[in-house]
Amino acid sequence: MKHRIPHDLDHELARTVTRRALDAYRKDFAEFKPELEWLDLDAAAVRFTVLGKTLAGRVDVLSDAIQLDLDVPFLWRAFQSTAVNIIEREIRTWVQRAKDGTLED
Questions:
Q1: Contact by Cβ (8 Å): 26, 89
Q2: Residue 105 is assigned to a structural domain of this protein
Q3: Is the pLDDT of residue 72 over 90?
Q4: Which of 10, 38, 75, 87 has a CA 20 to 30 Å removed from the CA of 48?
């Protein structure tokens, strides 16, 4: 399942925002044991554990959006929207901080 979060940032700033958002997610939701591995400048493999089940996916920084692609088994689809909403909220918060000039705060 792919989910796009549109942005109007320049590409380098979108990279920074994505990295900050994912780092904040890892700290704020440590109980889900989030793991993050940057594959290149614009793509990261992500994994987290919920109720003993590891869910995996990918985050890509695109020129006009940040794209989430989570591989969620059918029986876990109810959790999928919750996970996407949490990650999207974190990314949107950091996008707004970039626009407000408060990225370094």
A1: no
A2: no
A3: no
A4: 10
User: What contacts 35, CB < 8 A, 6 or more positions away?
Assistant: 46, 47, 48
Measured from the Cβ of residue 63, the count of other Cβ atoms closer than 10 Å reads: 10
Strand partners, 38: 44
Q: Is residue 42 part of a domain?
A: yes
Is residue 104 domain-resident?
no
Strand stretches in 7-95, DSSP E = 35-40, 43-50, 53-61, 65-71
HSE, side-chain direction, 13 A CA sphere, residue 83: 27
Average pLDDT, the chain: 88
- Higher-pLDDT residue of 30 and 14 is 14
Tell me how far apart the alpha carbons of residues 105 and 102 are, in angstroms, rounded to a whole number.
5
pLDDT at 104 over 80: no
Average pLDDT over residues 3-20: 95
CATH label of the domain that carries residue 24: 3.30.310.80
Closest CA to 68 of 79, 81, 53: 81
